[in-house]
Amino acid sequence: MAKEDLLTLEGVIDEILPDGRFGVMLENGHRIIAYTAGKMRKFRIRSIVGDSVRVEMTPYDLTKGRIVYREKVGGGGPGGVRRRR
After folding, report:
1. How far apart are the C-alpha atoms of 27 and 10, rounded to whole Å?
2. pLDDT at residue 40 in the model
3. CA-to-CA distance for 58 and 7, rounded, in angstroms?
4. 26: containing domain
């Protein structure tokens, strides 16, 4: 399937499920099950309940999707608390 056929929607994470999956409530009121995309998993971008996310979905299965972007939330600017590795 070509990337041009994907639907991109905005939503909010409302539940954390096992195996790296999330329950996402979309802006249009539908609820889907989504997983994190490869780049988000590679760079260990964490998502929690209440985060605004951008989800890609195929038109063939409108109950599943892939989280491709997590909206940045303020409060992590200069002088913030840093965690050591």
Report:
1. 6
2. 86
3. 6
4. 3-70
Furthest CA-CA distance within the chain: 46
Domain assignment present for 26 = yes
Q: Which pLDDT score, from 0 to 100, does residue 53 have?
A: 95
Domain count, the chain: 1
For the segment 29-64, what is each residue's pLDDT rounded down to a tens digit?
999 999 999 888 888 888 999 999 999 999 999 999
Angle subtended at Cα 45 by Cα 65 and Cα 20, rounded to the nearest 5 degrees: 45
Whether 79 maps to a domain, the answer reads no
* 21: Cα within 13 Å, side-chain hemisphere: 10
- Mention every residue, 6+ apart, whose C-beta is less than 8 A from residue 42: none
